[in-house]
Specification:
With 83 residues, the chain is mostly helical. The protein has one domain. 42% of the residues lie in helices and 0% in strands. The longest helix is centred in the first third of the chain and has 16 residues.
Length: 83
């Protein structure tokens, strides 16, 4: 990617494609950092985030569309101690 904006769009598109699948409820992203010829990491080879950490988090923690909305709401309430 030439710019952080290019990378953000690519990463957002990748995760959107995952989340939009009605049969997918989980995934494993195995490359945290870039290493030599592999440049698919969320961090560069020096362990510097390629985007602002808050923006990376916003992209990767979106729930899958396959999870029913009522289940998400129940989980959010439980996490906040409201259930």
């Amino acid at each position: 990617m030439e710019t952080a904006e290019d990378y953000e769009k690519l990463l957002g598109d990748l995760y959107s494609a995952l989340y939009d699948r009605p049969f997918l409820c989980g995934y494993c992203y195995t490359q945290l950092t870039d290493t030599m010829q592999e440049t698919n990491g969320l961090l560069d080879a020096a362990r510097k985030p390629k985007l602002d950490e808050a923006r990376i988090r916003a992209i990767i923690v979106d729930p899958a569309r396959s999870i029913p909305a009522e289940k998400l709401e129940q989980a959010r309430k439980k996490a906040q101690g409201q259930a």
